[in-house]
Design brief:
about 400 residues
Amino acid sequence: MDFSFSIPQNIIFGAKSLLKLPEAAAKLGKKKALIISGPHLEKIGLVAKCSAALKASGIESASFCKTEANPSVETVEKAAAVFLESGADFIVAFGGGSPLDVAKAVAVLASFGGKITDYEGAGKVPGPVVPMIAIPTTAGTGSEVTAFSVITDHSRNYKLTVASSHILPDAAILDPELIYTVPEGTAAACGVDAMIHALESYLSKAASPFSEMLSLRALELIGASILEYAADRKNAKAAENMMAGSLFAGIAFSHARLGNVHAMSHPISAFFNVPHGVANAILLPQVVEFNEKAAENAEIKNKYFQIYRCICKNPVAKEEFLPSMLKKELRSLNEKLKIPATLKEAGIDENAFAKVLDQMADDAMKSGNICVNPRKTKKPDILEIYRKSF
């Protein structure tokens, strides 16, 4: 077998590790940070806490706290302008997936100019970008360890991806105490997103022994803790497990990619602004059912069982397991987490959905994740999964 991997970042994990931000910043040898975050974190004082930690070590900072869910091309442009006007020479990406995606895009524009659409796709970033320290405040995206930035282009109702090793943050600080204040719904949606990163990278045709090891451990940690964490975000052990699981899943899918769930969820968010984790969770049972055909292969069937035993509290013995049991378990998990069962329940209008269904399927088929899904997928398959999910 042939595979390769590298983890070039410095990763700091543990309670109160936010206090190590000045140490991580000092290693960059820079003088002023732009903190890119969101309005909620600014409101509850965490952005100020981040700024104070830097100031205590003699590092100045400015902030941009106007990122939104499914961040737009326009937001990236505004944040890049703030970076250039502020005189900052590095970025602290502080928040969930949206601020981290914006920060990566800003680092590209601050380094090479132009528009973020100029860098759409893989390998378009010509060289190293402005240094970044990523500090996630949700357990979900794994963006602190991925080479991807996903930005919504409203002019096309399309989620574009910038993929380059150059946009990997230089350092990542993962402090489980930062996810104690996440709202229940956000915790559930982000947690399922992390679980799907692990699940899809585990089943991916591009999986390797390295990525499988991380995917499976992520599934174990998340499966054991997601319900407890969503119910009580200050459950220290559950929060720690969720953050570690999200980290491992992020590294895994950086190497193995994902599958149909992520390929199909991006158009849903682009057209209807459904939160990414919610769109993923709704699609997941239908995609798992579609992929059951691939589970006729003994290796894939075993992977289905491993996923099932990670998320099921009372799993059947391996010899009694049927691949269809996984879909049932995932539906049950979504229900327990109070996630809508269908896209209609998520607030999408049926007529509006029908009008753009074909375009969504075309956009999903453009994703490289389709190519590594365990079952070969064509556009009619995508259309059918969308209809069933609606």
